[in-house]
């Protein structure tokens, strides 16, 4: 119990300051004080959508091949420990508390949650003597703390509109922020066909080994399998990934292109790759829960991800009615999100997310009405768990419930579903 209390106290301390308060100077001083010098290669993964899935494919395939892999991702779904894993296992409380405490003791000020976790992850990786790290960028790239550690391979999955207040108002500005994770003369991958000009220009300017989807690497889908091609490597009849959704083959191909660049140090067999694709797990990425009625959990929270969610819903078997359980952070483009998917759902169950940054539910309801949704089909709730329970009670076996808008929605909705299905 004491350990849980200690962890809780540390997390409360870190959350008490804004993540964006500190300059990288204080972080660099802390890195130097702790003598954090990664002696393992780092794959740095940025992007608006798809970066979590890309990290999951990389970590799973490398772990299955027997390599000792450390992974740092964010946010978590249930426990903070999920952010730092070794061979896909979340680290224990003892390791987490010890590493966080070391960072706090070495810092002249409270670095906040994300920066402290980033530094702690490298202390944990060193302790576990990992052979390779997969690190997910927090926001953007240029000024992100993850970018202070030298990557061997840098990946951008996609560029879409998100965190505009920090990164810029359009795709070109956001792309340039993300492109700063690329390094001169090192592999720099881009995982979608829509490449902002700023990204291409930056890669060329620093002479990165630039690899783009549908140029230096590509994939081709058939009914039961897909093929991958990257320079001399050709892989045929790969199984479709265990993660559902149209975009997942694109994310998997991006991961395979990165692994191809690592083939001299980290050779893989085609059977390890196939097993990795089938065994990759990631909670809440267009996740369809087993059983009826059909329940979909999706962390989608920006217009690009919502469009993927809509396309993926079309591929599911017919539902008589679609119900939305929705909450979102106020700094997301929820007006655009509601405009694009408002009419895809027959009934909306709205609730605030469990965060001080939650959008006002009344404003969400107003926007839905503005989009022509009848207010009797908009149900306001005090929290996501209650919204999920109430929605679930309305479902017949032919209906579908989609819980989306935030990692916090997925967490609360899943807990509620476990409760009502018992």
Helix tally equals 15
Largest sheet: 8 strands, mixed
Distance between the termini: 27 Å
CATH architecture of the largest domain: 3-Layer(aba) Sandwich
Using the alpha-carbon principal axes, give the shape. Answer: globular
Q: Briefly, what CATH class of the largest domain?
A: Alpha Beta
Q: Strand pairing plus helix content: what structural class?
A: alpha/beta
Number of domains: 2
Which bin fits the share of residues in helices?
40-55%
Mean pLDDT across residues: 94
CATH topology of the largest domain: UDP-N-acetylmuramoyl-L-alanine:D-glutamate ligase
Describe the fold and architecture.
- The structure is a single chain.
- The chain is an alpha/beta fold and 422 residues long.
- The protein has 2 domains: 2-279, UDP-N-acetylmuramoyl-L-alanine:D-glutamate ligase (3-Layer(aba) Sandwich), CATH 3.40.1190.10; 287-420, Protein-Tyrosine Phosphatase, Chain A (Alpha-Beta Complex).
- 41% of the residues lie in helices and 17% in strands.
- An 8-stranded mixed beta sheet has the order 4-3-2-5-1-6-7-8, with helices on both faces. Strands 12-13-17-14-15-16 form a 6-stranded mixed beta sheet, sandwiched between helices. A 3-stranded antiparallel beta sheet has the order 9-10-11, with helices on one face.
- Strand 3 (84-86) and strand 4 (89-90) form a beta hairpin.
- Helix 11 runs parallel beside helix 12.
- The longest helix has 15 residues, at 113-127.
- It is globular and about 60 Å long.
């Amino acid at each position: 119990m004491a350990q849980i209390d200690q962890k809780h106290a540390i997390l409360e301390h870190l959350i008490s300051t804004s993540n964006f308060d500190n300059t990288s100077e204080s972080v660099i001083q802390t890195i130097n004080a702790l003598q954090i010098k990664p002696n393992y290669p780092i794959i740095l993964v940025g992007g608006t959508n798809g970066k979590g899935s890309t990290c999951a494919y990389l970590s799973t395939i490398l772990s299955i091949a027997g390599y000792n892999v450390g992974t740092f991702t964010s946010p978590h779904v249930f426990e903070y420990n999920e952010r730092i894993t070794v061979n896909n296992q979340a680290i224990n409380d003892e390791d987490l508390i010890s590493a966080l405490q070391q960072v706090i003791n070495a810092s002249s000020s409270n670095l906040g949650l994300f920066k402290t976790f980033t530094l702690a992850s490298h202390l944990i990786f060193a302790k576990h003597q990992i052979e390779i790290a997969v690190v997910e960028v927090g926001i953007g790239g240029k000024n992100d703390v993850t970018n202070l550690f030298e990557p061997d391979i840098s990946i951008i999955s996609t560029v879409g509109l998100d965190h505009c207040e920090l990164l810029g108002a359009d795709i070109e500005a956001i792309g340039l922020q993300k492109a700063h994770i690329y390094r001169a003369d090192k592999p720099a991958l881009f995982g979608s066909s829509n490449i902002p000009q700023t990204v291409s220009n930056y890669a060329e300017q620093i002479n990165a080994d630039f690899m783009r989807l549908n140029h230096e690497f590509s994939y081709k889908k058939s009914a039961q399998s897909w093929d991958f091609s990257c320079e001399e490597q050709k892989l045929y009849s790969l199984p479709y990934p265990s993660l559902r959704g149209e975009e997942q083959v694109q994310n998997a191909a991006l991961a395979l292109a990165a692994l191809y660049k690592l083939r001299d140090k980290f050779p893989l067999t085609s059977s390890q790759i196939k097993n990795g694709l089938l065994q990759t797990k990631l909670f809440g990425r267009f996740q369809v829960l087993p059983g009826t009625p059909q329940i979909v959990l999706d962390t989608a929270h920006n217009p690009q991800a919502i469009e993927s969610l809509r396309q993926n819903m079309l591929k599911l078997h017919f539902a008589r009615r679609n119900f939305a359980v929705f909450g979102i952070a106020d700094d997301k483009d929820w007006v655009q999100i509601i405009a694009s998917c408002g009419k895809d759902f027959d009934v909306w169950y709205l609730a605030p997310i469990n965060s001080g940054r939650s959008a006002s539910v009344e404003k969400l309801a107003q926007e839905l009405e503005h989009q022509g949704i009848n207010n009797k089909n908009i149900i306001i709730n005090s929290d996501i768990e209650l919204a999920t329970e109430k929605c679930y009670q309305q479902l017949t076996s032919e209906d579908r419930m989609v819980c989306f808008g935030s990692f916090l929605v997925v967490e609360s909705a899943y807990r509620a579903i476990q409760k009502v299905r018992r």
